[in-house]
C-alpha cells in the first residue's frame, strides 16, 4: 500500500467548464478516508473526477495531493494524467480485452518502466489480494462482472497511488453480483491507506463505501457531511430522497409548523422559516381515523408501493406528499381495504425541525 510519510491528503478547489456547464467545487479528503461525490444526473460528478485525474484541466483554483500541486490553473503547474500518482477504476473498467487478467494489472507498471518480471510479480500479488489467483490467465471476456471489477481495482492499486478514483464502480453489475462485490470493494478500500474519491448515483453504494458524502447539484456543492449528518439535516429534496427521509419546508411559530396545506404540531421551540424532517418509519397508517390527540393526523391517498427486504415504502398524496415505511403485511392490509382514503399519523416527538 501507499506510504504514510508527509501525507496531507487531497485539497482541491476546482473551477472547470464543459461546454456551457460550469463546475465550482471544493473537496478535501484525508488519507485513509473515502468520500462519495453524489448528485443527480448532470450535476457535475464526473467533471470532478475528470479534473482530479488530469483529463480536464481546471480554469481556476488548484488541485493538490500531499502538498504537491497537480493543477494550478492557467499559468500554474500541470501534471499530466500519466504522471500523477492517481489510480482510476472506470465505470466500464476499460480492461484490455486481448490481455489476460495478469497482463492487464501489469500494464500500468510496464508503462511506468518496470521490467516484465517485476510487473508480473507485483500483478500476481495484487490479484491474489483480490481473490483472483486462480484466474490469472483469463481474459476479461472470460470473467464475471464482479471478477472484472476486481481486476480493474487491482490494476488501479498496483502502482500504489496516493489517490484512488472510482467512477460508478458497481454500475455495470447486476443486482445479484452487486451486493457481494460491494462488500469486497469496501474491504479492499479499508485496506488501502490513500485518498479515495468515489463517484456514484446509488445511495446504497455511497452509504456502504463512503465515510463522508459531498452532494453536488448544478455544478456546486449543495451539502457535505456524514450520512448521519445529512439524514439529520438534509438541505434539499435530492438529499432527503438520497438518505430516504421526508423533507418539508414551512413557517414555524408557537410549536406549530405550517407546511402549506397542513399545520403540524412539533415538540421543538422554533420559529421562522424552517425545514422539517419525518422518518418514514415514524409515519403510522390506518384505514380509519386513529384515536388520540398527541399525534398529527390527516387523510391521504395511496400513490404507490415499493417493496424491498420485507418492508414496504408507501407513497402518499394528500395535503403534503409523504412516504411511510411499514411491513409488507401492513401494506397488503391497506391495499385490501375498501376505502381509498388512508389516515396518516405522526407523533410530534418524531418530527425534527431546523432553520431553513
Give the SSE layout.
Layout: E1 10-18, E2 21-29, E3 34-38, H1 45-53, E4 60-65, E5 68-71, E6 86-89, H2 101-111, H3 116-129, H4 145-157, E7 163-167, H5 175-191, E8 195-199, H6 203-209, E9 212-217, E10 220-225, H7 227-232, H8 237-243, E11 246-253, E12 256-258, E13 263-265, E14 272-278, E15 284-286, E16 295-308, E17 311-317, E18 322-327, H9 328-336, E19 341-347, E20 352-355
Parallel strand pairs: 3-8, 3-9, 6-7, 7-8
Antiparallel strand pairs: 1-2, 1-4, 4-5, 9-10, 11-12, 11-14, 12-13, 14-20, 15-19, 16-17, 16-19, 17-18
Helix pairs in contact: 2-3, 2-4, 3-4, 4-5
Structure description:
The protein has two domains: 10-232, 3-Layer(aba) Sandwich (Rossmann fold); 245-355, OB fold (Dihydrolipoamide Acetyltransferase, E2P), CATH 2.40.50. Helices cover 26% and strands 34% of the residues. It has nine helices and 20 strands. By secondary structure, it is α+β, with helices and mostly antiparallel strands. The model has no long low-confidence stretch (mean pLDDT 90). The chain has helices at 45-53, 101-111, 116-129, 145-157, 175-191, 203-209, 227-232, 237-243, 328-336; strands at 10-18, 21-29, 34-38, 60-65, 68-71, 86-89, 163-167, 195-199, 212-217, 220-225, 246-253, 256-258, 263-265, 272-278, 284-286, 295-308, 311-317, 322-327, 341-347, 352-355. Strands 6-7-8-3-9-10 form a six-stranded mixed beta sheet, sandwiched between helices. It has a five-stranded antiparallel beta sheet with strand order 13-12-11-14-20. The protein starts with 9 loop residues before the first strand and ends with a strand. A hairpin with a 2-residue loop joins β9 and β10. The relative contact order is 0.12.
